[in-house]
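Schema walk-through. Below, the input block comes first and the output block second. Nothing else is stored per chain. Lengths vary across the set, and this one has 465 residues.
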Amino acid sequence: MVHARALPRNETGIETVIGILKQRFADRLQTGAAIREQHGHTTTWIDNQSPDAVVYPHSTEEVSEIVKTCAAHKVPVIAFGTGTSLEGHVNAPAGGISVDLGQMDKVLSVNAGDLDCVVQPGVTREDLNMQLRDQGLFFPIDPGANASLGGMAATRASGTNAVRYGTMKDNVLSIEAVMPNGQIIRTGQRAKKSSAGYDLTRLLIGAEGTLGIITELTLRLQGIPEAITSARCSFPSVDAACQAVIMTIQYGIPVARIELLDDMSVRAANAYSGLTLPETPLLLLEFHGSDSGAAEQAETFGQIAEEFGGTDFAATSTTEERNKLWQARHDMYWASLQLRPGARGISTDVCVPISRLAECVTETQRKAAQLGLMAPIVGHVGDGNFHTLVLLDMENDNEVTKAEEFVGWLNDLAISMDGTCTGEHGIGQGKKPYLVKELGPAIDFMSAIKTALDPDNIMNPGKII
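--- output ---
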């Protein structure tokens, strides 16, 4: 495991706060070892750093009570959604209280005429879309995991639809949040745009719970398209597939999703999901619009793919066939683990300008091969974002050392290409050193904001800054 640095603990304050909150929340405060470990664990290779207690609020007012109590005794507060983050976001390096928002899971209102809704942070994206379906609406941000919407906002998540619909920062109209002193604020109204003051909404989106706890979100919705066409196409190399992506984006085709699977990933998908795709690099695409529009977009992509050696092109508007392809894409983490049974999967992501995509992906493949690492690649390549899943024997120190070298090298490569060390995973604990390399002196201003809002550093300490 990668060792996460522990921070000084406030033992007296933690003991006092647990006593106060136990009286207030009774069985909704838990201190059992298994529950605490679950709330420090994420899908990562970073050491588990468990909180001292887990509390389950039901309302914004209860979250405010918890934070006020912790603030009075200078005890850390760590917000928890579904635990699907990848960079140690929910670890408790100084101990403290994990605030599990999973029971704040109500859709408070849907304003179909305005294409927006108001939800509590524990609502998951799949549950929201199930409730919206009958009204012909959907929420487009799809990070793969069935994450909570509060957690998605906190980490500025995106996913497969980002190339058309943007990321969380583009789809949250306003936020209700509990700040480090326990005060409840609202960052905006339901209007589609505003010039009223500092943009606190986007300050809190991506702050990873270090500036406040999100307790309510007003989200932008989309109408379910009249027609959806999915397509797939195989390519002779990752470079050829990436060149086709670049041309598709530069040509202005309004593709909704465009996903890359390298040859290892296709092999894994075939075995895990029962597919029979050619085991060469693959692009999966989706087009939204009218019947004729979606079909025309798919046809135009097919012509572009031919220029780069694309073969086995097929398009479908059949729901069952579309769902089978996209379910295989969403199952890639589990499918990839089958490539090396018993291995641990370590996921990392970077994002580069679309013009540097082909170069970055091919260099990544070359470096993994040079180090002797098995590292299948998938990516939301329509916006230059891709992931590697390094498959490791965590008991082999040599492999772990090589993996650490590879992850550091990849982050540095993306930054050198005017890209970012993370397109959607966030910084957490794992990527803090690369944020400094990426943004330089801007980190000082982030630190100033953090200190001004949270002078006692109780909100998710040890993350980002």
